[in-house]
């Protein structure tokens, strides 16, 4: 079975680093034309250059409706349509109960929930039957990591979006699924853990997994690529965990 995304046009938000970059790279390798986004024009252009000629980097802040409308207008003009949408951009914030400021709350909810609403709403008019929308969730929605309650709540909200939105889109032929990674080796995870200079923090996390390790960005991208493809044309409204069995 060879996954082909030939002739598909995709957008991956938050793809200047980590999981988003790996998803975009695999999409391009499978034949798609891909638009990637991040907040900084130079960073996103450099990421697109590293991925290759079928990747276009455009700056757009997912939490800003006007930015996302501009993004959709450019995609319409350049490609005329969208077949695959990956709502990947997200931010974390550490704050224990008692320390949750409005600023941290608004930043996480504005990016991880409102940003997903903007991403999907501006994309929908460009999509046709057969289109695939993939939301990137997290095991933090149920695993309850200390001081990550707002992030976990936002990621839990994606499950509600997925289930409700497929009903809102009844008859459209567009499907929506959530892929929820466990701990994945990215620079932002290492930074959040304080593991940049202390590898033992990664080992502690790895020991919690039934597979005894954390995951790689390609292990998430493999699954997202499968969900972007027509092989999953009858899968709709699911949440799939890419977590090495941590959820069990
Ligand atoms: N790594 C893990 O262990 C893990 C585990 C579970 C779930 N996840 C989820 O997987 C996804 C990717 O995570 P990652 O670890 O690869 O993170 P990352 O390396 O920090 O990447 C996040 C991306 O989002 C972009 N971004 C942040 N705010 C944005 C905004 N307002 N508008 C547009 N782009 C924005 C960042 O680019 P700029 O800063 O340049 O804007 C960056 O490209 C996220 O949804 C995350 O919650 C990750």
TrEMBL record:
Gene Ontology MF terms: oxidoreductase activity
Checking InterPro entries in the record gives:
KR_dom (IPR057326), NAD(P)-bd_dom_sf (IPR036291), SDR_fam (IPR002347)
Q: Which residues form the Ketoreductase domain?
A: 8-190
Q: Which CDD domains match?
A: SDR_c (cd05233)
State the organism named in the record: Variovorax gossypii
Record-stated family: Belongs to the short-chain dehydrogenases/reductases (SDR) family.
Q: Which Pfam families match?
A: adh_short_C2 (PF13561)
What SMART domains has UniProt attached to this entry?
A: PKS_KR
What name appears for this protein in its UniProt entry? SDR family oxidoreductase
**Keywords of this entry:** Oxidoreductase
Q: Where are the transmembrane segments?
A: none
């Amino acid at each position: 079975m060879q996954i082909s995304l030939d002739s598909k046009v995709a957008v991956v938000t938050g793809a200047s680093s980590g999981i988003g970059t790996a998803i975009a790279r695999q999409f391009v390798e499978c034949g798609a034309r891909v638009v990637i986004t991040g907040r900084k024009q130079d960073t996103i252009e450099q990421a697109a250059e590293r991925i290759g000629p079928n990747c276009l980097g455009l700056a757009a802040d997912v939490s800003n409706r006007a930015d996302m409308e501009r993004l959709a207008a450019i995609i319409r003009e350049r490609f005329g349509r969208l077949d695959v949408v990956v709502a990947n951009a997200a931010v974390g914030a550490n704050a224990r109960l008692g320390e949750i400021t409005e600023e941290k709350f608004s930043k996480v909810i504005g990016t991880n929930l409102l940003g997903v609403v903007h991403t999907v709403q501006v994309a929908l008019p460009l999509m046709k039957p057969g289109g695939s929308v993939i939301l990137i969730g997290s095991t933090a929605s149920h695993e309850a990591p200390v001081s990550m309650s707002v992030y976990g709540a936002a990621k839990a909200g994606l499950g509600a979006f997925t289930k409700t939105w497929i009903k809102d889109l009844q008859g459209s032929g567009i499907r929506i699924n959530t892929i929820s990674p466990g701990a994945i080796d990215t620079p932002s995870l290492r930074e959040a853990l304080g593991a940049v200079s202390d590898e033992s923090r990664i080992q502690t996390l790895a020991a919690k997994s039934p597979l005894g390790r954390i995951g790689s960005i390609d292990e998430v991208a493999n699954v997202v690529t499968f969900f972007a493809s027509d092989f999953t044309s009858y899968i709709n409204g699911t949440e799939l965990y890419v977590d090495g069995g941590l959820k069990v």
